[in-house]
Amino acid sequence: MNFFFNRHRYSFRDVGMTTDIHCHILPGVDDGAGNMDSSVEIFERLYNAGVKQIVLTPHVSKGIYPNTTQILVSGFALLADFIPVNLKDALSLKLGAEYMIDDYFEEITDPLVYRNNTILIEMSYSSRSSNIMDVVFNLLNKGYNPILAHPERYVFYQGPGHHTPNRLQELEKLVDMGCALQLNIQSLTGSYGEGSLKVLKYLLDHDYYSYIATDIHSAGQFDLFKDFKVNSSQFEKIRQLAVNNDRLF
Ligand SMILES: [Fe+2]
């Protein structure tokens, strides 16, 4: 079925996501929420769209966001003290992190993980981590369950013009090894371009994704989630990804 035909219009709420597993709402530690007011605004928007459980996943990258587990744990404790009571009662929050796979990643000995030792990793959008295969192999050997964030956003997996499946062999290999893939909801809207949509379609139609997340950085970004078009079979797969999220909380 062609991705661009027989499509229907859906919104974030239609997906029925009750658990968001990837977002940047912990204030002041990365390029997400800059202060407590911004955090609260994002929490309110997610809650109003049906999200009840949220894992906060600030960037950890030695060069750009040198957050340690200790820094993030302290920030998370402060957030719990300042968050308004109505939100505190309505939402269940946990702390995770989104780890950049760089030359320093394997020095981290106490990573923040989801349930079942599941860990969220990412690469730079424009430049592939040369050690990605080794890192995933080592993580699996150590008993972690890696999730690669937003594979559809990496430009090095997107062919110029027509989609070239051999570019995606590495992603297929990662999945075969046991690395899960996480779709960004905003990618469905086409915000990241035609190349990204083609990778997304390929991964979705071949059932390579396991999870879906907002990866939200600001309240305004929420407006970009409200409208996307997929066919009904793709939509059912997307809904299932949202159900899978609950297993990680
Ligand atoms: Fe992220």
Structural features, described:
It is built from eight helices and eleven strands. It is α/β, with parallel strands linked by helices and 249 residues long. It has one domain: TIM Barrel. The strands form three sheets. A six-stranded parallel β-sheet has the order 4-6-7-8-9-10. β9, α7 and β10 form a beta-alpha-beta unit. The mean pLDDT is 93. Bound molecules: fe (ii) ion (FE2). The site of fe (ii) ion has 5 residues, from loops.
Contiguous low-pLDDT stretches (5 residues minimum) are none
Return the CATH class: Alpha Beta
- Gyration radius, in Å: 17 Å
Beta-strand fraction estimate: 15-25%
Number of separate structural domains: 1
Attached small molecules: fe (ii) ion
CATH domain fold name: TIM Barrel
List keywords for this structure.
249 residues, alpha/beta, TIM Barrel, six-stranded parallel β-sheet, three-stranded parallel β-sheet, 8 helices, 11 strands, 16% strand, binds fe (ii) ion
Quick summary:
The protein has 249 residues and is an alpha/beta fold. It has 8 helices and 11 strands.
Write the SSE topology.
Elements: E1 8-10, H1 12-15, E2 19-20, H2 36-48, E3 53-56, E4 59-60, H3 69-82, H4 85-90, E5 92-95, E6 98-100, E7 118-122, H5 132-141, E8 145-149, H6 169-177, E9 180-184, H7 194-205, E10 209-213, E11 228-230, H8 232-245
Parallel strand pairs: 2-3, 3-5, 4-6, 6-7, 7-8, 8-9, 9-10
Antiparallel strand pairs: 1-11
Bound molecules: fe (ii) ion.
Fe (ii) ion binds at residues 22, 24, 98, 149, 215.
